[in-house]
Amino acid sequence: MDLFSTAKQRLNKAAAIISLDPLLLSILSEQDRVIEVSLPLKINGKISTYKGYRVQHNNIRGPYKGGIRYHEIVSMDEMKAMAFWMTLKSALIDVPFGGAKGGIAVDPKKLSEHELEELTRLFTDRLSDVIGPYKDIPAPDVNTNPKIMAWMADEFKLQSSESKVKYSDGELQAVVTGKPLELGGSEAREEATGLGGMFVLSQTLKRLGLALKGATVAIQGFGNVGLSISRHLAQEGAKIVAASDSKGGIYVPAGIPSISEVWRCKREKGFLAGCYCVGSVCDLRNRGQMNGKNISPDELLKLPVDILIPAALENVITGENAAQIKAKIVLEMANGPTVPAADEILEERGIKIIPDILANSGGVAVSYFEWYQNINRQKWSKDEVIHKLRERIEKTVDEVLNFALEHKISLRDAAYACALQRIQEDWKSKSGLSKN
Ligand code: NAD
User: What phi-psi label fits residue 71: left (phi over 0), alpha (psi between -120 and 50 degrees) or beta?
Assistant: First the structure.
């Protein structure tokens, strides 16, 4: 089943729970707009043409909002599902945004920095009519980062100097979020998704009467999100026993002593496998002393841990491997990591899934804070941002858990239903339907 069909299947299930208006269900079952652009680039005298996508799913609650992904597997189907999830996520965490997603089918590791900048600027140029601070606001996702966001903001500024719409400096910054601090980025934005995930997990465990301190954790994906959540969980006393990136990973049953050293080692070597760090010395030869084991990204999913965190790509927990998962809780930091067949198997086995639209909503929450600060020319301190994030997340977790308990449904169905209720309220009040 393609990814967007998976998303629609879950939409239909949640729509039935809250008796969603059939017209709104039809609206949410499709995209407002899909854009496909072609991006020719000359590399070493040879022309390569890349495909770029932007899907604007829905803007009932505010401007379209969603990340930009650079990856070889980027496709229109993937972007449609991700944009739909952004609509739900923004509604669930209650920020005044809709949902979008975009990306380029490219392996950015094969491009030089100059080529990457050229490709990003060309993509932004192609999208300049449909993005903007009140229209559609991109952000970082897989293989994109603050530097790429800065190129996008700069290119948009260049393009808009020729357009009839005149933006203020703050509005020009607000066209993308996840920017570097000195170019209008927000404190805590880079770590927001991981930090938010830690808040989601600790509040859920608190409600379930379980402890985070001492819990064992395995994390698949060691990029922006995987690194940040592992750091925050370790600080809270959880024991990170395994981590992997696309090339492989490490398993240290007694706990990885220092996440920062593993990250430094990965940055220096380009991959995480073999990063067994004792103090600041990271070497495969330390493996025996640490009782460690090399693992593949798939093996990581099946480790005997309390908490499993997929933080890489979609469709990794499947009907084939779900029966072998031993964790008690799956925290979906990646978007769409679990296929519906696996949902059922995990549920039957009593494994709780904290769904993506809740687990990783810290990213869009702080993106909203960044956008708000840009438009209103404010600068919030890191403590202020983190305080606001924590408050918003704990409130949302309580809302989802209460709904799940009341209706005796999974956390995924409850999260979808809460988000849909909020969208329906706005939709009715905007179209005057509440008066009927
Ligand atoms: P990233 O590019 O910074 O990191 C991705 C990581 O996944 C890398 O370590 C990569 O090596 C690893 N990876 C790729 N393929 C893998 C595989 N097959 N097995 C194991 N690891 C693999 O991306 P990110 O921003 O950390 O995003 C990760 C996930 O979180 C994505 O699903 C993304 O949509 C989601 N997400 C990100 C944000 C954000 O703010 N960046 C917000 C919400 C959700």
Answer: beta
List residues with catalytic annotation.
101
Q: Which of 95, 176, 245 to mutate to test the pocket of ligand 1 (most atoms within 8 A of CB)?
A: 245
From its phi and psi, is residue 346 left (phi > 0), alpha (psi between -120 and 50) or beta? alpha
Q: What is the DSSP string of 140-170?
A: E-TT--HHHHHHHHHHHHHHHTTSSS---HH
Q: Which residue's CA is the nearest one to ligand 1's atom 40?
A: 363
Per-residue pLDDT tens for 338-397? Answer: 999 999 999 999 999 999 999 999 999 999 999 999 999 999 999 999 999 999 999 999
In whole angstroms, what is the distance from residue 266 CA to residue 248 CA?
11
Closest CA to 17 of 406, 434, 428: 406
Query: What's the predicted TM-score (pTM) here?
Result: 0.97
Q: Is the pLDDT of residue 433 over 80?
A: no
Convert the pLDDT of each residue in 189-227 to its tens digit.
999 999 999 999 999 999 999 999 999 999 999 999 999
Neighbours of 117 (CB within 10 A): 17
Which residue do the tokens 């070497």 mark? 283
Name the residue with the closest Cα to ligand 1, atom 39: 141
Tokens of 425: 């309220």
Give the helix/strand (H/E) hosting 38: strand 33-43
